[in-house]
Amino acid sequence: MSHRVNVAILGATGAVGTELLELLESRQFPVANLKLLASPRSAGTTLPFRGENLPVEAVSEDSFQGVDIVLASAGASTSKAWAKTIVESGAVIIDNSSAFRMDSQVPLIVPEINPEAAAQHQGIIANPNCTTILMGMAIFPLHQVQPIKRIVVSTYQSASGAGARAMEELKAQAKAILENQTPSTQAFPYPLAFNLFPHNSPLNEEGYCEEEMKMIRETRKIFNAPQLSITATCVRVPVLRAHSEAVNLEFSRPFAPQQAREILASAPGVKLVEEWQANYFPMPIDATGKDEVFVGRIRQDLSHPCGLELWLCGDQIRKGAALNAVQIAELLIEKNLLKSSTSAVSV
Fold first, then answer.
1. Which residues are part of a known binding site for substrate?
2. Does pTM surpass 0.90?
3. Minimal CA–CA distance to 105: which of 325, 342, 345?
4. Are 34 and 54 in contact (CB under 8 A)?
5. Comma-separated ranges of CATH 3.40.50.720 domains in the chain
6. Residues at the annotated binding site?
7. Which residues, including other chains, have CB under 8 Å from residue 177's CB and lie 6 or more apart?
8. Pick the catalytic residue: 121, 143, 199, 243?
9. What is the pLDDT along the chain (347 residues), one digit of tens a residue?
10. Would you list which residues are annotated within the binding site for phosphate?
11. 121 catalytic, yes or no?
């Protein structure tokens, strides 16, 4: 990429924000100028980038002038508050929050799955939920060969999904419990150390939590399969970083496990991990800090002739968030899609 662009990171001091900064450097993203934006309480601090310490600025109305791409990871309310200003400034916002994911005018993109959707952007592109991205990476290559009829997924989500503060809380809780003290809870409603609980996002009247509905709705949108049958159970587990998922797939005809292995072994962004003799399959500790989604334990569903089971792990902060956003930015540059229309998206 020879074309250099001006970039701003909104939410630069958070867990995903700092990962975005690292990825821009390690992937040699063509940054001309970089702005680090956060809330007023973080203003004045510095973060390292390419041998320099860049200042963190408080976001303001003037922050986005001359910026080409805004990588936003500061939460839905912040994204909603600044999206109109960003788009009107001429920049494209790649938003990691849930603010615009289900907006019919906003592309929801995983570059390995639906890169063509980027051409439809009108100044805003949504980054999917972490669990949706990880699952999509593992199952879309199979879906391309034989369309999936039904998905049953159970997630095992690490503390990193709730941010840096939640990760520190898990460490502190583990220390307290091992010292026979009562653990305190702030980021989570219940102690997570040596415990697990169903995802604590709000429940709807059918009993599904918000996290589960994100997986259902977002997968249908990304796959362009509005009638795809999906059910999800999301669980928070005492793992610092990297989510895991058990996925059951139903097809219209049998899908041989060996064929699935061969497909996934060559799929972009996927790493097949299977050592059957050693009973060794993807684990969060192996996926942490890695870009690939680790997939394994692929087997026939004994309860259904057209069913397939698989297990996956992926780093929630990298491919589940920051890496996917940076890849979208790279796609925009590669396809010369940075000139956006600012007239159609209502923000």
1. 157, 210, 236
2. yes
3. 345
4. yes
5. 5-128+321-334
6. 13-16, 41-42, 101, 157, 160-161, 210, 236, 316
7. 183, 191, 193, 194
8. 243
9. 568 999 999 999 999 999 999 999 999 999 999 999 999 999 989 999 999 999 999 999 999 999 999 999 999 999 999 999 999 999 999 999 999 999 999 999 999 999 999 999 999 999 999 999 999 999 999 999 999 999 999 999 999 999 889 999 999 999 999 999 999 999 999 999 999 999 999 999 999 999 999 999 999 999 999 999 999 999 999 999 999 999 999 999 999 999 999 999 999 999 999 999 999 999 999 999 999 999 999 999 999 999 999 999 999 999 999 999 999 999 999 999 996 444 444 55
10. 101
11. no
143 is catalytic: no
Q: Which residue has the tokens 């795809």?
A: 228
* Right CATH for 5-128+321-334 from 3.40.50.720, 3.90.550.10, 3.30.750.24, 2.40.50.100: 3.40.50.720
In the CATH scheme, what architecture does the domain 131-316 have? 2-Layer Sandwich (3.30)
Q: Among 130, 143, 234, 313, which one carries the catalytic annotation?
A: 130
Within the chain, which residue ranges are assigned CATH 3.30.360.10? 131-316
- Could you tell me the end-to-end alpha-carbon distance of the chain, in angstroms, rounded to an integer? 31
Query: Could you tell me which of 163, 147, 112, 107 has the C-alpha nearest to residue 316?
Result: 163
